[in-house]
Amino acid sequence: xxxxxxxxxxxxxxxxxxxxxxxxxxxxxxxxxxxxxxxxxxxxxxxxxxxxxxxxxxxxxxxxxxxxxxxxxxxxxxxxxxxxxxxxxxxxxxxxxxxxxxxxxxxxxxxxxxxxxxxxxxxxxxxxxxxxxxxxxxxxxxxxxxxxxxxxxxxxxxxxxxxxxxxxxxxxxxxxxxxxxxxxxxxxxxxxxxxxxxxxxxxxxxxxxxxxxxxxxxxxxxxxxxxxxxxxxxxxxxxxxxxxxxxxxxxxxxxxxxxxxxxxxxxxxxxxxxxxxxxxxxxxxxxxxxxxxxxxxxxxxxxxxxxxxxxxxxxxxxxxxxxxxxxxxxxxxxxxxxxxxxxxxxxxxxxxxxxxxxxxxxxxxxxxxxxxxxxxxxxxxxxxxxxxxxxxxxxxxxxxxxxxxxxxxxxxxxxxxxxxxxxxxxxxxxxxxxxxxxxxxxxxxxxxxxxxxxxxxxxxxxxxxxxxxxxxxxxxxxxxxxxxxxxxxxxxxxxxxxxxxxxxxxxxxxxxxxxxxxxxxxxxxxxxxxxxxxxxxxxxxxxxxxxxxxxxxxxxxxxxxxxxxxxxxxxxxxxxxxxxxxxxxxxxxxxxxxxxxxxxxxxxxxxxxxxxxxxxxxxxxxxxxxxxxxxxxxxxxxxxxxxxxxxxxxxxxxxxxxxxxxxxxxxxxxxxxxxxxxxxxxxxxxxxxxxxxxxxxxxxxx
Length: 702
Hints:
By secondary structure, this protein is mostly beta strands. The strands form eleven sheets. Strands 1, 2, 3, 4, 5, 6, 7, 8, 9 and 10 form a ten-stranded mixed sheet that branches. A hairpin with a 6-residue loop joins strand 11 (193-201) and strand 12 (208-216).
């Protein structure tokens, strides 16, 4: 088979570091899920521009996934010219990639003398692309690499381990700088990758194009040969065009090299069509079927319709549990007891699973004597390590913890071994098929948990009801992809007995992110944004509890993935917002203010606090506004705090003046901040609105 390597130099355009170059050029001895070797001298490593394709007879180990390392510092070092992937045939322009704030995520660009036009709304990974000019039209095709952080740790520095799980070959057509959306020319498959080789016009068919691509089961970037891989791999072509609405219309794929085995490409058929589930067929493990299963039900692989259902192996009498090394003892744990050892190995064997990505959850008791480093390994055979993650069992005990997401071919074993000091617990492991979860977590979902007593159900809210308790806490847990997420909270409106100090804590993979305090007598009945946060983990948790003895309202939470943290944005909190808090004696004032209302305190030790969340690290100008009056205090002190530290304090005269008044300019590194108002001289306090304005302060020194 003849293979085209014309676009190998695109690897340089991505700016991959040496570790990534080693990975994409292939190393048959590197197990999937392991970081590529990095101990060779840089001069001894193969470079893409000097790489010679392997001998025709050289075997290449087929692997389901490829794990690779990317260098996030590249986006800050490259110029647009460095990021060009390929020229556009007959155009004089080029296809390029544009870095984003997300590691190894890029936008695809078409660049010509008129400038650069972005082709993507959502960034992805791009190594290969091709483009042609067809009169006034331009057609661009690229292999989009969908990837996510691997479960295995990567070490220090900016390099991060990524795992490729799908490749899509997409094309777009443009004219006069306006492009259609990228649309699939080749349907994506979970089992092989379509790497684009060439794109050409069809002279005898105006408006039709032919894309040639390599169907690659092993997912090895640029290793475009059939040797050592399934014979249905190889070179394929597909012809396509665009209808009047700009929709891509593709024909049936064909093998480009005649005489080779293999049929048309396309998505793999579902081995278990609905209504044809056969428990005796290992490909067709029983599924829940009715979509209403209980979260604790053990129902095999719930890939299609079972939501929170899971398969659990416990260290009790479950046949899938085994202790293969060490002296094990018994103590209290899940399902009455847990096994532990000082130095040993135990395994949890999962059977009857369909191929695809799986969440792996682990459970261990609460014990400060537990090991500081429990190694959880996922194996599909003695020599096939799919993933490894280290967890500190001294924290997160007593509940399920997400260890990571791993792509599997079916059955697998989770191994737990001692990697540090202390008691190693082997309590239970749970696996769930990865499904597209609703970003909304309601109080009736399996991802919602309650702690403490006194919980009751009341009408109103998301789904028609909500939960409330004056002494308990509620936890919402979401599976996420690491990145920037906007966090939303809602509760019913008109709740005069609700808590005025509901503490909201946000964590990612157990690491603290932010805390805010909300007044649930305000802003009910709508979704309240708590801000955008960079969540570096696979599990986000929001905990809600009251701190003043009044009932906390637990209704619904939403995690929305967004492209980036805002740049140069304004953050405003008004006295009518839920993030505005008071102590002491306050009342509504007659004066007009922002949002139509103003609060005032005639005397005493009253304070007002405006809170802010989702702040990207930056310099901020802190501005306040209030209606001036002769009876106001001439010493209203505004204090800005973040991460427990006082940043700036200023005394303002509220007897005169109008418009925005400046408190100061501060550097805020944490995602939350607050501004508190108090008086240092007699007179009334007026509390209206506070604004933080992000500013690029080049003359400032942190």
